[in-house]
Amino acid sequence: MNIASLSKIAVKALGNNKMRCFLTMLGVIIGVGAVIAMLAIGQGSKNSIKAQISEMGSNMIMIMPGAERRGGVRQSSEDMQTLKPADYDAIVNQATTIANITPSVSSSGQWVNGNNNYPSQAQGVNTQFLDIRQRKVTEGEMFTEDDVKTAAKVCVLGKTLVKNLFPDGTDPLGKVVRFGSIPLTVIGVLDEKGYNTMGQDQDDLALVPYTTVMKRMLAIDYLQGIQASAIDENKTDETIAEITDILRTNHKLRPEQEDNFTIRSMQELAEMISSTSSMMTVLLAAVAGISLLVGGIGIMNIMIVSVTERTREIGLRMSIGATGRDIMTQFLIEAIIISVTGGILGILLGALATWMIKIFANWPVQIDPSSVILSFLVCTVIGIIFGFYPAAKASNLDPIEAIRYE
Amino acid sequence: MGKKEIIKIENLKRYFKVGDETVKALRGVSFTIHEGEFVTIMGTSGSGKSTLLNTLGCLDTPTSGEYYLDGIAVKGMGKNERARIRNRKIGFIFQNYNLLPKTTALENVELPLLYNSSVSAKERAERAEKCLREVGLGERIYHKSNQMSGGQQQRVAIARALVNNPVIILADEATGNLDTRTSFSILTLFQRLHREGKTIIFVTHNPEIALYSSRNIMLKDGRIVSDEYNHDIKSAEEVYRNLPVDTE
């Protein structure tokens, strides 16, 4: 007996019990729908993080003092002073794969303009910071290399600071504001970027020559960090290796000594963030997968009932020449039809749910074609696995007893 | 008789183990049925007639003894081989019809051919329709089984038993669920099939039926107590015509 005629028989048998068939399917529909929607949310947030990071500069490299932090072990303050301006100079002079580089120091404090004040930071950088972070000065100008050399008392403010220090909307350019006790002339305003994925206000930022922060504000001789951008974002690993070599030589580290600095690329950071988001996705999908499993158990339950109910039909089929295999195939096909139809409807439901999440919750979502294919395959497999036991049960019936079953 | 031997059983025994006891359902039964015979197998319940029918129908295998169906030794066949032989050589008719519910007469009759991959869909439908016409249901081929009377359902079942051109038709109390008048109309159909040369075994506990068959085998306690040819076959059709017509 061929599959086509068995399928016809199976469809007919299911058609005799439409309501029951649909309710059984519902388990699979909801399961698959949930899996699709959860994976779409996961994929969407991953994509948006990626987009955000590449906007921040995916070729960005951060160098921090001290060995890599592990767990909550606190490092001594001495360890945090291992990056010196000399290291910065060495990298500038020797590195070949770096496009831009800036020292980074920052001081927390109160920005004050007359009656208005706002707690924030002064970010000490050089002129290349704008290129590394892909920011622009929209009003006025960025400070110059000369300003850096002379530790000039100038600053470039982000939009959030402008709004808080000049709430009446006066033009901040040329005005003198104070950071702590130090007066700084506003010479430029940064472009507006809004919040990033991590919820940070990217406009809560004020740029000051790093020399000004080091000498006039913090009175330190070391750097809190160095930020750089690689020439090629696909070769950040090489850049990291190069910088590591330069710094190790400069710090006179023997081969057995650990690095007393840490280098991170934006790509690593991106991977870390997306691995967190991947884990969330896996967890969500696992919960959804459990509901799919429950759907499968529902199929098995109904198929067992169906086999018992149709014992006489099975007996009859056997007595007119159906082999155990024919009976088994028929019931397996019934289970697969339920699960696969449920799967298709579930994919549609998942797409609908995803679309609604996008429209109403405004979350970034994306349905990955592989998740659709995956859930479809899982459905088929579930149909086979959970249909197998009832089908085997049916095929093992004794026709003599089955045909007289009441 | 120079006719072909359809069924030949020799010293057939069938024992069942029920707990510690052995139930001897058949204790050595032998007979030969030739082509074109209409045999009734009679016996009270417990006489072994159901076991005999199951064995003849290749649903069960004997504990010992030989069984040849159309010259083929059935003993020693596997499950699948027996399913195949049931499909090709046997037509079953049951007391409670055993039609598929919510399914048309045509589809019910097609069923045995569905399990025979050498029959095309077109041929299947043609043969099923022809058989339905033979049993007088030519006008009802698309009626569903649950929309039919008992007599009509049994006719569908008979058509289903004929559709694979079996060498033997096995009927198990085929008139047991029907009223007298319908019983006789079904018996008339059996007699017509007999006249057309079909070989029929009709298992029943109703002694009256023996009057309409060509041979009667009586079973008691798993043994044959009598095996007689009936030389004066009564016509079921005559009885049927003389019965008072139901006025409903």
Describe the structure in brief.
Chain A has 406 residues and is of the alpha+beta class. Chain A is built from 13 helices and ten strands.
Describe the structure.
- The complex is a heterodimer of chains A (406) and B (248).
- With 406 residues, chain A is an alpha+beta fold.
- Helix content of chain A is 56%, strand content 17%.
- Chain A folds into two domains: 182 residues, no CATH class; 177 residues, no CATH class.
- In chain A, strand 6 and strand 7 form a beta hairpin.
- In chain A, helix 2 runs antiparallel to helix 12, helix 9 packs parallel to helix 12 and helix 11 runs antiparallel to helix 12.
- Chain A is elongated and about 105 Å long.
- The two termini of chain A are 28 Å apart.
- Chain B has a single domain, classed as P-loop containing nucleotide triphosphate hydrolases (Rossmann fold), CATH 3.40.50.300.
- Chain B is 32% helix and 27% strand.
- Chain B is built from seven helices and ten strands.
- Chain B has a six-stranded mixed β-sheet, sandwiched between helices.
- The radius of gyration of chain B is 18 Å and the shape is globular.
- Classes of the chains: A alpha+beta (406), B alpha/beta (248).
Portion in strands of chain A? 15-25%
Low-confidence stretches of chain A: none
Helix segment tally of chain A = 13
Number of domains of chain B: 1
Summarize the biggest pleated sheet of chain A.
6 strands, mixed, barrel
- Run of helices and strands of chain B: EEEHEEHEHHHEHEEEH
For the terminal residues of chain B, how far apart are their CA atoms?
48 Å
Order of adjacent strands in the largest pleated sheet of chain B: 6-7-8-3-9-10
